[in-house]
Amino acid sequence: MGSKSEAGVDYMAIGAHPDDIEIFAGGTLLRLNALGRKGVLVDMTDGGMGTRGTSAIRVREAAAAAKALKTPREQLGEPDGKVQNTLEAQWKLIEIIRKYRPRILFTHHFSEEHPDHEQTALIVKEASFRAGLSKLDCKGEPWRPKRIFYAVGNTSVTPSFCVDITPCWESKMRLLHCYESQFHNPKSRLFKGRTDLAGASFMEALEIRARFWGLRIKRRHAEAFWCDEIAEVGDPTMLGGERFPASGSRK
Ligand SMILES: [Zn+2]
């Protein structure tokens, strides 16, 4: 993984439950893969409290999605439905951050409705900073990720940037279908229990959101992220070239 001052992987994506990462950043991670970037996925819980499926099923599904992304996956074993921003939870994440030394982090935005998502965002923010403290009583060499990007969901947060995921929209849908127990599948009668995700309208809503952010950057589908800091740009012409391509420059 290089010397102690170098990043180990390009990114770490951290979600409260298996499938969260794929919902909020699946397209972005597929794009990063295509660019040759290396990353790691981290689930705070095994999702065992979910209405549909069991811990064992959800772990199997999460492993299938990680395989599709060709990315390692870690699970921190926090209690599903009761994730709390405690020092113990932060220490577990700090060990993982120090193990992989990611350059950037992706996670939920702390304005999200599900308390596990909100708490995960807070854990990530504080653990990311503390992981860089050299005298911390935690395993591993100090490492502080350079940026945290919080995914914009259904709350009224203005994104700092959007990632064009048009080329990998279909792949993102296939990725989500690794989670057979969670999403609507008219051909499967294996899983019962009514949830927002399992309703026929969830995928439609997910696409509407991706199309909305896509529209904002003049693309078909996009994922949106918020960053607490202002990003530095060395060459502003790079931004203009991507956002407003000359007509006909892109199919
Ligand atoms: Zn979740």
Helix count from the secondary structure assignment: 7
**Biggest sheet architecture:** 7 strands, mixed
Overall spatial form? globular
Overall average residue pLDDT: 88
Low-confidence parts: 246-251
Give me the CATH fold name.
Answer: Rossmann fold
Question: Describe it for me?
Answer:
With 251 residues, the protein is α/β, with parallel strands linked by helices. It has one domain: 3-Layer(aba) Sandwich (Rossmann fold). 37% of the residues lie in helices and 15% in strands. The protein has a 7-stranded mixed β-sheet with strand order 3-2-1-4-5-7-6, sandwiched between helices. The longest helix is centred in the C-terminal third of the chain and has 17 residues, at 200-216. The termini are far apart. The relative contact order is 0.16. The model is unreliable at 246-251 (pLDDT under 50). Residues 16-17, 20, 114, 117 line the site of zinc ion.
Give the helices and strands, then pairings:
Elements: E1 9-15, H1 20-34, E2 39-43, H2 55-69, E3 73-75, H3 87-100, E4 102-108, H4 115-130, E5 147-151, E6 161-164, H5 169-176, H6 200-216, E7 222-227, H7 236-243
Parallel strand pairs: 1-2, 1-4, 2-3, 4-5
Antiparallel strand pairs: 5-7, 6-7
Helix pairs in contact: 1-5, 3-4
This protein binds zinc ion.
Task: From the structure above, extract its key features.
alpha/beta, Rossmann fold, 251 residues, seven-stranded mixed sheet, 7 strands, disordered C terminus, globular, single chain, binds zinc ion
